[in-house]
Structure formats: C-alpha cells, structure tokens
Write a structure and sequence with these properties.
- The protein has 256 residues and is α+β, with helices and mostly antiparallel strands.
- The protein has ten helices and eight strands.
- 42% of the residues lie in helices and 18% in strands.
- Strand 6 and strand 7 form a beta hairpin.
- The radius of gyration is 20 Å and the shape is globular.
C-alpha cells in the first residue's frame, strides 16, 4: 500500500515527548554521557545556548514537581534512559529525584551559558572519578552531534543544521496547492498520530490551566481574557492552552 509522502513527513516530524522538549533534551544529553562512564557521578556540567536556558529554566520536570536545568541534568545522568529519546525520564523513581536534588544542593550540577550562535545547543559533561564523557546536541532536540570520552571522540556527525528529520527531497514535494488538496482528500483514518497529538496536547493544556506550573503563561492569558484585556475568541483560548500543551507533542522545528 502506497503511503502519501505528507503522511510520512508527519510521522517523521511529529514527536511525542515526555515533558517540555528543552529540559528533556538536556536530560537526554546527560543520560547519553552517563552511559559512557563508570563509577559514581561526581559532577555534571551543562553549557547551553541562551534560547535553551530561557525555555528550560522555569518549566516543570516530568515525574516531579520541580524545575531547574541543573536538576534535570542531574536527574538525566542518574536515571535517564537515552534509548528512549524524548521519553528519557519515563522510568525515574522518587529516590532518583532525591538524589538529583542532593547533587544540586551540593553544587555538583552546574549550568553555564554556551559561547555559540546556535539557537539550540546543549553540551553536557558527566564526570566520575574514573572518567568523563561529553555529549553535544545541536539544532533539534535529539540530534546528537558529538560524544567524547576522556578526550577521545567516539561518535560524531548527527545531522548538520538538522531542523528537520524528513529529507529535503520529501519536503521538496510540499506546496500550498498540494497541502490544500491533501487536507481535502486524505482519509482521516491515516491521521491517528495527529489525532493523538491533539488529544494529548488538549489534556496537557487543560491541566496547565487547572494547576500552577512554571511561569503559568496559560493561566495568565486566561485571566486576561476574563478581565477583558484580551479578546474572548478562539485565538486567545488556543494561546492559553498552548504553553502547557506544547510539552507533550512537539513538531520539532526549534531552529525556524
């Protein structure tokens, strides 16, 4: 059975993430680095671009009621599963959270602003008594471009400027007319991933409006609608749902 190229692009680009993609990507880098070293973790060091720091600083970390880049880096190193990509923190336990908090309190997990022009740049170094490993992620949240262990490069490459996961040839087939035709003719049964993303994001958005997470952007928008500061329309309601909802299903285009 022939799959429409637009369906393939959707399945390639639409990624389910456990938590906001910026801190989760930091946890992924930390977990990947940890997998290359032996012995108890002595220190975790993060260098990240300004955009990553801005977006990751105050958002909630999945499975906890905590925030913080230093915390999520420590948690990723302690209990993250790099094989699960953006669901890297799916298996954390309360004891892991306590251990990560302890590292932060002892100053063993630290964050610095990276000297880079990239919008998305994450570098995490995990140190043990025996060795260290450095992992670099650039351009999209799972694009590991460097793994270095004790000064030796063991993995390199990734996708240069990998804002997209689909190929340039696939995206070359996109056009306004083609997209309109696809929307009008596609069998909705083929869009289950899109339906799932809508449902997940809606649930996450409503949860964000009901609770006090992070900077409470959605709740603030909703309150401003109720006060008459913002218009009571579809756009305002969509914006109120978005800040929390974008944490679940992400169309990974951070560099656009």
């Amino acid at each position: 059975m022939h799959t429409h190229p637009f369906i393939h692009i959707l399945k390639t680009e639409l990624v389910v993430a456990l938590g906001c993609t910026e801190p989760v990507a930091i946890a992924l880098a930390a977990a990947k680095a940890r997998s290359y070293v032996k012995g108890p973790i002595e220190k975790v060091t993060v260098h990240a671009s300004a955009g990553i720091i801005k977006n990751a600083l105050a958002v909630g970390i999945p499975g906890t009621n905590l925030t913080g880049i230093d915390f999520v880096a420590a948690l990723g190193a302690i209990a993250g599963n790099a094989d699960k990509q953006l669901e890297v923190l799916a298996d954390i336990q309360p004891s892991d959270v306590t251990m990560a908090q302890g590292m932060v309190e002892q100053g063993l997990s630290v964050v610095h602003l990276a000297d880079t022009t990239r919008k998305l740049y994450i570098e995490v170094v995990v140190h043990t008594e025996q060795s260290y490993a450095k992992v670099v992620i650039t351009d999209n949240h799972t694009n590991i471009t460097l793994v270095e262990v004790n000064g030796k490069v063991v993995e390199s490459g990734g996708c240069a400027n990998a804002s997209f996961k689909s190929s340039k040839e696939e995206r070359g087939e996109l056009s306004i007319d083609g997209i309109v035709d696809f929307v009008n003719t596609v069998d909705l049964a083929e869009l289950q991933l899109v339906k799932q993303s809508i449902e997940l994001n809606r649930k996450a958005g409503l949860d964000g409006l009901a609770n006090d997470y992070g900077l409470q952007v959605g709740k603030t928008i909703k309150e401003n609608v109720q006060r008459g500061i913002l218009s009571n329309d579809l756009i305002s309601h969509a914006m109120a749902l978005l800040p929390r909802g974008q944490m679940v299903v992400w169309l990974d285009q951070a560099c656009l």
